[in-house]
Amino acid sequence: MGKYFGTDGFRGEANVALTVEHAFKIGRFLGWYFGRDHKATVVIGKDTRRSSYMFEAALTAGLTASGADAYLLHVTTTPSVSYVTRTEDFDCGIMISASHNKFYDNGIKLLNGAGEKMEESLLAKIEAYLDGNFGDLPYATRDKIGCTVDYVAGRNRYMGYLISLATHSYKGKRIGLDCANGSTWMLAKSVFDALGADTYVIGNTPNGLNINDNCGSTHIERLQKFVVGNDLDVGFAFDGDADRCLAVDEKGNVINGDLILYIYGRYKKEKGTLNGSKIVTTVMSNIGLYKALDEIGIEYEKTAVGDKYVWENMRENGHLIGGEQSGHIIFAKYATTGDGLLTAIKLMQVMLSKKMPLSKLAEPVTIYPQVLKNVRVDDKEGTLYDDEVRMTVKTVEEKLGTNGRVLLRASGTEPVLRVMAEAPTHEECEAAVDEIIAAMERRGHLINV
After folding, report:
1. Which of 72, 195, 251, 259 has a Cα-to-Cα distance from 151 of 20 to 30 A?
2. Mean model confidence pLDDT for the chain
3. Which amino acids are annotated catalytic?
């Protein structure tokens, strides 16, 4: 990760960590970089945050000042920007969103021409320009100045694409949608209505300040009550930019990303279309998922945390399905990034094909209790490789055996280690995590304890 761009773009509080000047300069650089040998075209989408309109204007000014044409999708989802970028020959795509964060944060996500997260090498050049270490860029003049194009048609084509992927009519199905007062506030209902569902929607009254506010995938409890209270067949909750989806079954139980991977992976195996593909997870997926996959003979791989790394593994190894516990699910045949609406459509496909409720589809997976504690340390690497700490981790792992696991990983941005344990009971998880933290304390690594 660089100075500004993390695993999911340049993110921070609007006009504090991420300013309009940053946005203007990012637009300036991209317009110049992609326009060195042709007229550059860049597609831009945004979520419903108040600051998204400000950043859209700044990015557009920067792009057109460097000679690029900026195509505006307006309020839309991150996966729609990815889809339009890769299918309509744009040089790159930009999504303005801080995903599941509070309204006062925002972010700039950059996608390459294939609709994938932008390459690190280009991000490094952008960062150098932001820091004044790249040199001046020429302004476009006269007829070389770029133009702005209203491109809501691109968003509509994306919606048509999603509808075309559904294999069944949803007629008679009562479906709840929590749009997080974000990017899907209009899109989701339109798609599900077109497929024949009886749709019941919450989180669809954005005002610029209420995105993710007690709604969406980060506050799933609201949808749980809504599904049960309205006797719905299923519910889907999206985050602010809709690259995530979590589901709620007819009983009000949460179906997280791990369960979604299992349900769709098993369905593909039973149909004979998994074709030796492995399920790609991150190291944070629950041990219960792995045990359930072992039970039905599906192999899996683990990556670092971040859907960016999941996609890289899928692309390089030809795997079809991957994702994160948080609901970033990637279906390689249809998309190059997590897509909440696509995930909902794929879950509906399994439910309707197998004529089973979501609760029954998820039943074979036992999710193990998990405890995660963040501890501030004097030296992340030094603590991770401290002999006593490593020995303690080994001892804890031996105690847990095949019925649990331990994970230590460093924060990418803070002097923090994340200590996680999974075990059959919450008490065993707590004991395992506390034993490892105690070893760190004995060795003098903890700070601000």
Report:
1. 195
2. 96
3. 99
